[in-house]
């Protein structure tokens, strides 16, 4: 009996409820009280996926440099300093001539040459005598000679460069060898021989 009551209660709970409805004209209609349908289920909106573009960085690996080879046959040795005798200077017993190189020095420059000049004590006697032939011809002329002055200031040689006539050159050459006097050239206070060019002018108006 108890089981029947339980089954009836379950059927009552499961069965739809019928509610009587009375209209104005007295009509009664039993209306099944149906529960409202459940609200529609809105499907969830799909989430927007943001695609992240990753920048691909290409890394070039550095070249591998192999370590230098290790010489396994080399053994480090530590030498103990010993007392050694001091070096022997060159030229002494036990030394060699190649152990010390002597310093080199440039030779000093030679002193300048001071050229020969006319001795002022004999300056008035430098003009040669007028050649007689040229004087009679009333001819003027010039002579250019190259003379070698010795260490004593005297003329040792005369070379002709130019001359108007032979008579003018011969008169000049003879007078230079006998009468011309110079202060000789010197280098560092020492007299030296030197060649010097001399010019002589013969003017006819000076002797008339």
Beta-strand level of the residues, as a percent range?
Answer: 15-25%
Mean pLDDT across residues: 77
**What pattern of helices and strands is seen along the backbone?**
HEEEEHEEHEEEE
Q: Using only CA atoms, what is the Rg?
A: 72 Å
Q: Number of helix segments?
A: 3
Helix content: 10-25%
Count the beta strands. Answer: 10
Q: Which structural class is indicated by helix and strand composition?
A: alpha+beta
Cα distance spanning the termini = 200 Å
What general outline do the C-alpha atoms trace? elongated
Strand order of the largest sheet: 3-8-9
Largest sheet: 3 strands, antiparallel
The low-pLDDT segments are none
Give keywords.
about 210 residues; alpha+beta; 3-stranded antiparallel β-sheet; 3 helices; 10 strands; about 15% helix; elongated
């Amino acid at each position: 009996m108890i089981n029947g009551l339980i089954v009836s209660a379950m059927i009552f709970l499961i069965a739809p409820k019928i509610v009587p409805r009375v209209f104005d004209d007295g009509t009664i209609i039993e209306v099944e009280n149906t529960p409202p349908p459940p609200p529609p289920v809105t499907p969830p909106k799909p989430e927007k996926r943001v695609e992240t573009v990753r920048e691909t960085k290409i890394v070039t690996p550095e070249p591998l440099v192999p370590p230098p080879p290790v010489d396994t046959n080399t053994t480090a040795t530590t030498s103990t300093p010993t007392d050694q005798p001091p070096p022997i200077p060159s030229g002494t017993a036990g030394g060699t001539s190649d152990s010390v190189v002597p310093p080199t020095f440039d030779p000093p420059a030679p002193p300048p040459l001071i050229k020969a000049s006319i001795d002022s004590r004999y300056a008035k006697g430098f003009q040669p005598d007028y050649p007689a032939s040229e004087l009679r011809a009333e001819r003027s002329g010039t002579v250019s000679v190259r003379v070698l002055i010795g260490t004593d200031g005297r003329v040792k040689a005369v070379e002709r460069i130019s001359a108007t006539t032979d008579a003018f050159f011969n008169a000049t050459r003879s007078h230079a060898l006998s009468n011309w006097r110079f202060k000789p050239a010197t280098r560092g206070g020492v007299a030296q021989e030197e060649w010097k060019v001399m010019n002589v002018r013969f003017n006819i108006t000076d002797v008339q």
